[in-house]
Amino acid sequence: MQRNRQDGAAALAHAPGDYLTRAETLALLQIKLQTLYAYVSRGWIRSVPQGDKGRRLYARQDVERMKSRADARSGHAPVAAAAMRWGEPIISSTLTEITAQGPRYRGVAALDMARDGQTFEAVVKALWNTGDDITLSWQPCARTLRFADAWPGTAGLQPRRELVRFFADIALRFGSEHLRGVRSSDVQFVAASRMIATMAHCLGHLRRPHDGAAATSARKRGGGLSATLLAVLGGTVSPQHIAALDAALVLCADHELAQATFVARIAASAGADVGECVAAAILTQTGLTSARSYEATEDLLRACKTVAQAQRLFEEHYAAHRNLPGFNHPLYPDGDPRARYLIDVVRRLAGRHPSVEPLFAALDIAAKHGCLPSLEIGLTLLTIALGLPPRSAFALFIISRSAGWVAHIVEQRTSGALIRPRADYLQTCPASSNSAEDVLPVDGAMLAAESHT
Question: Which of 160, 180, 266, 284 is the most exposed place for a label (fewest CB within 10 A)?
Fold first, then answer.
């Protein structure tokens, strides 16, 4: 018996997130204490002693399994399925809440942070909840920078055309040197800030042609991350432009469980290190809702050289697609407040690039058709106004959102929970079917299944 107590204590010392207290277990399962005792006695929920006062802790995995069974019996499966598609929350988190006024980071509105002039670095510390005892490092890794500078030759690709792969390789390379096997949250956060800084210093590759001397000079420059980004990308490093870019980075830092964030949490729950999780999230950005959305948005905006051209192109695009890229975010039916704020920043920006002027007329055309700008529009407008090179908007989004991914990764790893959804198996077509297209009823709907021979 004493040996079992020691083994249980040892297990807890190594994996505290794998266990729940009695109060947490009762609250999660919504059962009485006698029912919990019955579950334990029948072997359905494992428990280990906590201290010498008869208290016990209960295996999180067993408790969550019992919760899933209870939900399934209660008909919660359709609710869970709907939750995977812009539905109800499915993962508990203390990081970000989405409201009609935009995201709130740990209870503080991101828009308020931007209005108050908080720097990106300060917001990252708040999002990561590092406290005053931890000093983050925003100095890049020289070895990873050399790797990035050599990447076009070794990969045979141009970073501005393969930005997702470029960033993913940087995250993997940095992670293999600084984050492999690291378990301490504080150490992970310090290394992660260096990883984000390293990615920022690599953006000189977006300039045409790539100016190695200018990039090296910018890397030696002091100041915050926004000042570094402006210098690396060839922008004007003025106080107003730094403040504008800080506001954009703050608003992009996190947005709850977006697709890439969910992927990062899944990878973290499976034991991947921070660099690998961030790389997985970055690679998820190749889809229609991220990289391609930013590309389509930027291509349309940058093609508008005059007011007349902007009006014509927006009218033609809407007539052809009944929508416009970068507009109408599903979570903000009344308009994305992050985009509205960034557009206002652009309107007030002194020394903005003249190429942004026709785009205000384009926004009026979009509004006439009921199209409300999303973050892609606001961020792309800002990069054009700042005179930054093409694809800067998406690159800045990746750098900023990496901070949010790191927060989710560390939170997921700390919880000790494995994310492993179950599939709702659907009946497949018989192998002997000769029909080119078989249609099966599924939950009252008709599912078309194409035959592959």
Answer: 180
2-34: pLDDT as tens digits = 444 344 434 433 344 578 899 999 999 999 888
Domains within the chain, CATH numbers bracketed: 2-74 (no CATH), 96-291+396-415 (1.10.580.10), 296-385 (1.10.230.10), 423-453 (no CATH)
Alpha-carbon distance of 365 to 400, in angstroms, equals 30
Beta strand 445-450 pairing with 437-442: antiparallel
As a whole number, the mean pLDDT across the chain is 85
* Spatial distance between the Cα atoms of 350 and 182, rounded to a whole number of angstroms: 45
With residue 311 as reference, give the H or E element that holds it.
helix 307-321
What does residue 49 show for φ and ψ, rounded to 5 degrees? -70, 150
Burial 65-94 (b: 16+ CB within 10 A, else e): ebeeeeeeeeeeeeebeeeeeeeeeebebe
CA angle centred on 419, ends 417 and 423, rounded to 5°: 145
In this predicted structure, the answer to whether residue 75 has a pLDDT above a threshold of 70 is no
Q: Does the pLDDT of residue 273 top 50, yes or no?
A: yes
Contact 406, 197 (CB under 8 A): no
Task: Tell me the whole-structure pTM to 2 decimals.
Answer: 0.77
Q: Is 109 exposed, middle or buried (0-12, 13-18, 19+ CB in 10 A)?
A: middle
CB crowding 437-446: b at 16 or more within 10 Å, else e: eeeeeeeeee
What is the token pair recorded at 50? 């906590």
- Contacts for 283-286: CB closer than 8 Å, 24+ residues apart: 283/164, 283/165, 283/168, 284/259, 284/260, 285/164, 285/260, 285/394, 285/398, 286/164
Instruction: Please give the Cα distance from 123 to 112 (Å, whole number).
Output: 11
3-state secondary structure of 327: strand
